[in-house]
Design goal:
There is one protein chain. The protein has one helix and 22 strands. By secondary structure, it is mainly β. The strands form three sheets. The protein has a 17-stranded parallel beta sheet that branches. The longest helix is centred in the N-terminal third of the chain and has 7 residues. It is elongated.
Length: 280
């Protein structure tokens, strides 16, 4: 039946009483507005979409590999990989952090994060996301095949006074090599100071923190996770098949995979298995 208020009589799912569906390029609720939030169909790059879309928008990222530097400031944006991890890849490239944010609400869902940081000489504080203030949500995100030839705190996230939420995040295959002595690694994957951290179904495997022979000291405070003054919550955290292997001439020290300093709250269902620490 035709209806003058219906903008598409051929589709039963398109009418003024339905909810708008993101990432489909259609006017689902017949308000005269078509989503123009796809990358690269509507915007050539991720940063083009950030500049063009208003706060509160969803950036729909089509399958492909993206290597950009995103300075989000205090923007409120959600980035969605349309076909999920494996199809939509964020390549860390040579500039870090890939994403800088602070003060707003940022979310990433449905991505694989990968990349080689070996060309970086200075210690890294946040390879994927560095956030100061505001909030960050990662859901259905995978990190794999990442290597760094320098101290790298928070390869996945480096956060200060922010509200973090990680849900269904998988890490498999991250190598950090302390190529010089007299460095301290604090949280190879997650470095969180202040604020809050909610972890639900976080799985880490194949994490390696290695130290080469050198004059001086090698210190590792939490190969996977370092927190300081953080309110913790969540359940289902697993670290397995990972190792720390350090060789330095003066002092070699490690707290293992997790280092929770002056942090409150509770994490349930934490499992560390088949991990090793070698010191020399």
């Amino acid at each position: 039946m035709q209806d003058d208020t219906d903008c598409d009589d051929s589709s039963a799912d398109t009418h003024p009483d339905t909810n708008e569906v993101g990432c489909d390029g259609l006017d689902n609720d017949c308000d005269g507005t078509i989503d123009l939030n796809r990358v690269p169909s509507d915007h050539g790059t991720l940063m083009d979409a950030v500049d063009a879309l208003p706060d509160g928008s969803e950036v729909c990222v089509e399958p492909g590999t993206y290597a950009e530097v995103l300075d989000l400031g205090d923007r409120n944006l959600r980035f969605t990989g349309q076909l999920g991890p494996g199809s939509t890849v964020l390549d860390l490239g040579s500039s870090h952090p890939m994403v800088t944010a602070g003060g707003g609400a940022v979310a990433f869902s449905g991505f694989t994060v990968t990349g080689d940081l070996d060309g970086t000489e200075a210690p890294v504080e946040g390879a994927f996301v560095r956030i100061e203030g505001g909030s960050l949500e990662l859901s259905n995100v995978e990190m794999s095949a990442v290597s760094a030839s320098t101290a790298a705190d928070g390869v996945l996230v480096w956060a200060l006074d922010a509200a973090l939420s990680l849900n269904q995040v998988r890490v498999d295959g991250v190598e950090i090599v302390l190529s010089t002595a007299d460095v301290e690694l604090q949280g190879g994957l997650l470095h969180v100071e202040g604020g809050s951290l909610d972890l639900l179904d976080l799985s880490v495997s194949g994490l390696e923190v290695l130290g080469v022979d050198g004059e001086g000291r090698c210190l590792v405070s939490g190969a996977a996770l370092y927190t300081d003054g953080v309110v913790l919550s969540g359940q289902g955290v697993e670290v397995k098949d990972s190792r720390v292997d350090l060789t330095c001439t003066e002092r070699v020290s490690t707290s293992g995979m997790l280092y929770l300093l002056k942090s409150d709250g509770q994490l349930d269902g934490v499992r560390v298995a088949q991990t090793s620490v070698g010191l020399a």
